[in-house]
């Protein structure tokens, strides 16, 4: 790892200008997002701003992506709420302390993963599991925000609870709130779907049009604040954000409560993994567009530093955001300096803008969240995955249903568990083919697919998988079956062209196979064993003990064990 | 599955005679084992006998091995004790009920595995984990029995506890007990190590000598019972088995306590898996010697039936025993009828012999257990495994240490967890090689190992592993690195000869790779894609969308993408 970032060399006014413009646009996008995701996480609004200051500086110093924009994101905020709501009352000091502790644990886990090079653990989360989780999260978040649009109280984690609570609250719908919420929803949806093309149609340059469209939520906020103030809607019962302390966060450690840490650990682990996976895939996509590289281990460090910064500055868990990073990239950000400048922008916002945000209706923030997260819901992906692979489709469906019905953590664990189970089930049954010699050639092919010449006394079995513990016993069984079905066989040649590894379990199985074959009057041989596998076999006494030979090729094996058969096959024409 | 066993056809007096002799020998071996393993499990002695009657009949009816001898075995008895001792006082009615419930749960789990074809779950338990577990169990059992040899009270599950308790009890050693115990140990050790060769030296046929040696424990029991009676040793404080109820077990369900079931479930799952693995590997070894087959799913059913029978007849969890099955096989057992006849033998024993066993010293049973289980301890295997593979060696060492220090369940779970982690770590980093054309040939080989011709504009990458979620992102990273390092490359050909599967995660990765390469001005292509993989890819829209071609061979790809390079390579001589 290089500690003096190479982007600092050659940093000049032109690059600074590009970074500065990107920072300005991201700041305009991030202020409403910060407020909204803090509300989604059940935290005071300023928490979202605080989590967008120091964490951005920390990531800029330690991360490896040049354009990733970190901060509070929707799914992580949902997971934060899911972890904390059962423990404390949302908005309370204990709740905020626990959110900071969650960020601290997440930071420690990310550092630990970086130190022990455990970034590969994120691969546990297969694409179908993540896709199912993201869709379900989007739905959960959107449904969860409807209470703010309707202006009714409703709590709950899982979908059935949420829907029941909403349904119960429906008669109490607060009309002014609903008007503001629905209006914001319509406006923001129109901005998202049509503003860019309308502006382009009016002759605005596409890049600028795109950036203006991203400022839609900021515009909605401005209008709503003015409206609430002018019509005195707060007095009419419209829930507003309220007083936000003006100024910067004070630095303080979260409460280091050991029992609480234990309770939060599973959620912190999931938040770290999910945040890391999402962040890395955004960062990689963006880096590739400019032929840059990101280093996953450096990303762990960068995200860890960002969460540590959030933990000590009254923040909440953060990670790289998809939409935000794309905006940063497309607005022309060249270096992590853009992130640092965004932090400055948010800090200025926290210092200067907060008094103006008092009248901001929660319904507008809810509308911004709903429009943002509905883009995450992709139920068509489920059908696609199912069509491609039943197993992957099952994992995705289970994750989706699990997250919706049983909660975030249980859903993800179910999906990962099922993926692993199906994966082990699949690798425990490797493809094996009895092969015979193609007439007129030295090649051996599957007897079920090709018309080949088979020896009566020599059975040739090709294994299309590395041999390791999940499938070792399967090989034993398959060989047992084959030998019982062919009493005339005297030699079995295991063709190992597809075997990249033989672990200790498979070695035991090979020994058992050799011994059992022996007592049945059959000799085991190997052919086409790869170099590294052979090196490892030589470290055991298997090669001395199994009594057979290791042939360079299957053809050589047949030449030695049943020359008549190979001669017959060569003489035939294909 | 065939429900009318084929061995019944052609069953005649000759076969019945062979089965009968084997049954007699196994009965003589099983009576002391039943008593001993019941004591080891903390159960009244008759439990071991009862678990050797109906379960044997049930296995004979439903199992697939012709020679497997089921009943109480050492490691399962240890696991039973480990599961029950924290809950109830050994020997109490609740303890016995819980043991029956454990057998019932084990039966249900085995049936469930048979129904859902989940027998492959046993493959989770790699050879190193099982080997580590068995050695540690042997040590734990042996140390745990020393209290009976010394005649001191000592309880504890893990090794440090056991040793501390023994050390504390040492001053209270009961001399007559120690004399009997040590004498039995010496005698049984001599029988095991030397009796067969001594008898053979005296001209006894080796088979008979072997069978006589197996009856050693029965002989030790006889002598000890006579001695205790003659010298009135019970009155001198030698602990004896005591009154064993005469007769057959009464049929009754275990207490169906739901809370207790939940507590026992993990232990029942491990007992089922370990019992199944041990049983199947013995059965397969024996079946292969006569070119017979065993069906793993039928074994699940057979062992399930045996445990169900144990659960309703005041028994304890059972499985196939290694030593016992070998004796059965070598004594000439031909069909499951031998098992059924053994059950009759044990039933007769329970009816007629029990009064005579009152004076049997517990020290003799302990000695029999120690001599039996020390054969399980194989610490040399640890060194061997470590030499063969560091990863497998680590899994074995962790299991061994875990079982000794933290208990059976924790130790096995640690070992399995580590195995899976190392396995996933290994498969998450598949071997990939940049390949070039061998001069004068159409073959492509690793550029690091061979002197090959590389195209400047076409990068050829061979992947030596199926592509699935644990390694999908690794491929993304590797491709990213390669492309950044080679700015002149315009085509990347992924050579898929070693790819047996592309799951949905890997498909997403391929799409991401194609897209990222595209935005970097590089086109992705595939070559040598196997038929089944191609079939699956066709079920997605990847092939339409990725913009590249699928070439039959790597050579064909280079001919199409950089004909100059292939011509140059062909003109060179090797």
Strand and helix map with partners:
Two copies of one chain form a homodimer.
Chain A: H1 13-40, H2 45-50, H3 54-62, E1 70-71, H4 74-84, H5 93-115, H6 127-150, H7 159-169, H8 175-201, H9 206-214, H10 216-231, H11 258-289, H12 296-312, E2 319-320, H13 322-330, H14 337-352, H15 362-374, H16 380-388, H17 390-406, H18 408-427, E3 432-437, E4 444-446, E5 458-463, H19 469-485, E6 491-495, H20 504-519, E7 523-527, H21 531-537, H22 542-545, E8 550-551, H23 554-561, H24 563-571
Parallel strand pairs in A: 5-6, 6-7, 7-8
Antiparallel strand pairs in A: 1-2, 3-4, 3-5
Contiguous helical run count of chain A? 24
Largest interface: A-B, 74 and 73 residues
Query: What composes the largest sheet of chain A?
Result: 6 strands, mixed
The number of distinct structural domains of chain A comes to: 2
Number of strands of chain A: 8
Q: Name the quaternary structure.
A: homodimer
Distance separating the two termini of chain A: 58 Å
Low-confidence stretches of chain A: none
Spatial order of the strands in the main sheet of chain A? 4-3-5-6-7-8
Structural class of chain A: mainly alpha
Domain STAS (chains A, B): 448-561
Keywords (chains A, B): Membrane, Transmembrane, Transmembrane helix
Main location (chains A, B): membrane
Transmembrane segments (chains A, B): 21-40, 46-62, 69-89, 95-116, 128-150, 170-191, 212-233, 264-288, 300-318, 338-357, 364-382, 394-424
């Amino acid at each position: 790892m290089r500690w003096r970032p190479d982007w600092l060399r050659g940093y000049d006014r032109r690059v600074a200008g590009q970074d500065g413009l990107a920072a300005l646009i991201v700041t305009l996008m991030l202020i409403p997002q910060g407020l909204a995701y803090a509300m989604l996480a059940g935290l005071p609004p300023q928490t979202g701003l605080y989590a967008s200051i120091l964490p951005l500086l920390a990531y800029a110093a330690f991360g490896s992506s040049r354009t990733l924009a970190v901060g509070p994101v929707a799914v992580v905020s949902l997971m934060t709420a899911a972890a904390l709501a059962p423990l404390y009352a949302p908005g309370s000091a204990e709740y905020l302390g626990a959110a900071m502790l969650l960020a601290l644990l997440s930071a420690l886990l990310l550092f630990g993963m970086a130190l022990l090079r455990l970034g590969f653990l994120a691969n546990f989360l297969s694409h179908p599991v993540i896709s199912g989780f993201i869709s379900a999260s989007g739905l959960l978040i959107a449904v969860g925000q409807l209470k703010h649009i309707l202006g009714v109280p409703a709590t709950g984690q899982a979908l059935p609870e949420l829907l029941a609570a909403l349904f119960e609250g429906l008669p109490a719908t607060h009309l002014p709130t609903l008007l503001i919420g629905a209006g914001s929803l319509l406006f923001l949806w129109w901005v998202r779907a049509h503003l860019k093309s309308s502006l382009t149609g009016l002759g605005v340059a596409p890049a600028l049009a795109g950036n203006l469209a991203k400022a839609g939520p900021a515009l909605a906020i401005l209008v709503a604040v003015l409206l609430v103030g002018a019509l005195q809607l707060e007095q009419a019962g419209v829930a507003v954000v309220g007083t936000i302390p003006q100024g910067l966060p004070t630095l303080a450690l979260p409460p280091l409560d050991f029992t609480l840490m234990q309770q939060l650990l599973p959620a912190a682990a999931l938040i770290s993994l999910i945040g890391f996976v999402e962040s890395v895939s955004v960062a990689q996509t963006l880096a590739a567009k400019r032929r840059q590289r990101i280093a996953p281990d450096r990303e762990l460090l960068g995200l860890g530093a960002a969460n540590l910064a959030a933990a000590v500055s009254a923040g909440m868990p953060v990670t790289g955001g998809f939409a935000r990073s794309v905006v940063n990239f497309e607005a022309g950000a060249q270096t992590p300096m853009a992130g640092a400048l965004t932090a400055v922008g948010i800090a200025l916002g926290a210092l200067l803008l907060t008094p103006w945000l008092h009248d901001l209706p929660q319904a507008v923030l809810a509308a911004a969240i709903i429009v943002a997260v509905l883009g995450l819901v992709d139920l068509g992906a489920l059908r696609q995955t199912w069509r491609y692979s039943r197993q992957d489709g099952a994992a995705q469906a289970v994750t989706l249903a699990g997250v919706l019905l049983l909660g975030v953590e249980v859903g993800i664990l179910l999906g990962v568990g099922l993926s692993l189970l199906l994966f082990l089930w699949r690798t425990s049954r490797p493809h094996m083919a009895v092969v015979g010699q193609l007439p007129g050639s030295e090649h051996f092919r599957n007897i079920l697919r090709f018309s080949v010449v088979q020896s009566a006394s020599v059975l040739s079995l090709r294994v299309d998988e590395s041999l390791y513990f999940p499938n070792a016993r399967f090989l034993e069984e398959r060989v047992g079956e084959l030998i019982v079905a062919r009493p005339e066989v005297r030699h079995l040649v295991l063709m190992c062209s597809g075997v990249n590894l033989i672990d200790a379990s498979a070695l035991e199985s090979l020994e058992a196979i050799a011994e059992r074959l022996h007592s049945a009057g059959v000799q085991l041989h190997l052919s086409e064993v790869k170099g590294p596998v052979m090196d490892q076999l030589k470290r055991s006494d298997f090669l001395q003990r199994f009594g057979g030979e290791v042939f360079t090729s299957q053809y050589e094996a047949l030449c030695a064990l049943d020359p008549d058969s190979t001669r017959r096959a060569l003489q035939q024409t294909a």
